[in-house]
Amino acid sequence: MKKKPQRPTLLSSLSVLFFLLTVSCRPDVPDLTLPSPGQVDYQRMEMVGFIHFGMNTFYDKEWGYGDEDPARFNPSDLDAEQWVLAAKAAGMKELILTAKHHDGFCLWPSAYTEHSVKNSPFRNGQGDLVREFAEACRKHGLEVGLYLSPWDRNHAGYGTPAYIEYYRNQLRELLTGYGEISEIWFDGANGGDGYYGGARTERRVDKETYYDWPATMALAKELQPGVRIFSDAGPDIRWVGNEHGFAGETFWSTIDKGDLVIGASDSDYLNRGEAGGPDWILGQCDVSIRPGWFYHTAQDSLVKTTAQLLDIYHKSVGRNAVLLLNLPPDPRGLIHETDVARLTEFREQLDRMYGEDLARNGEFSDKTRGEASWTYLLSLDEARSFDRIVLAEDIASGQRVSAFRVETEQENGEWARLVSGTTIGYKRILTFPPVSSRLLRITVDSALAAPALLPPQLYLAE
Ligand code: FUL
Question: Taking the model in full, what pTM does it have?
């Protein structure tokens, strides 16, 4: 029997009103922009790798014009597993391959062009480097990412609607033919001179409208709902505005997507983000282990030093972003011995620096919850010497802290300022000359909502 609908009584209406008021006023459920679970997982990877390999490797170029001869694509000893093992040794969790760079040459036998591995001597024209790469990554537990350059200096139709159709067909091939793709990388460089099917001319495009990005991105998500999209404007992962691997000292994962145009965004804004911005687009710091993105013999002596790599790590991962480090294979199809050795050293140093958390037996407590500031105490099991602190927010509940300071208790019982900063986010590493103390006070002086700090870690690295 159906129940008769009941009229709301004054009491029931009041209780609904009361419920709504309490829910909307609850301090722990603020109206904050939050990351998706896929973004949180990505941030936890901390370090991922780039593989720039293609026609440029054989022409000793950075930006091929688009008229390069596929016959020159002929790596003598290509071994994608060697790339994966080098990346893994450094601690990377994903690799991204330039399936197609600006020169338009495809590392897979695309059905839509002749400008690909199928017309090269590589594996007698039977090769598919995207497949070899994806299989090697999966064999060793790395996630697979692909770079598909929107600019194509080979394609005759570049600049017309025909190219957009071609581009989407290629995206479909990559996102349907190679299993799960963790990330797709849409570069911001586009438009300029090129071969363009023999026209050898200059083609400029309207960066805001030409690619109809919303439709292309919707297609990517339709084909692979779990894929994370990188571009200047996200929607999942964003460029940080430079190619040095440095996030801003103040770095918000939140930003306003409405102010971003792929290939034409304000790089300072990308490098900083926006407190309380409406869109969560986590930062990815891309940088190459060598001066160029592609391999050049002349740069064999210019591989970044371990000290430079550590500096990059501290200014990317240590500032709430993910590090994307490029490892360009040489014409043999192998990552050069110098680069491999540097990566191993880099990992050894990181393990040495961050191997033993001196606060692990300490107690972290919430001392005062003020209206506008919050104080926490970290008491160690005994006085310890340390030269760095790692702060972290539980980012699943948003990025909240906008100013903090850390003090140590001195022998006379007074507090001495150790270090201070603005944002924390997923991870904030702060270094200073070694100090010794048993008690630390962490004060959050301003935050968008009650902070959700995780227990800090302390290390002695130098
Ligand atoms: C840039 C490109 O022009 C470079 O060649 C490289 O691929 C870098 C990662 O992105 O925009």
Answer: 0.93
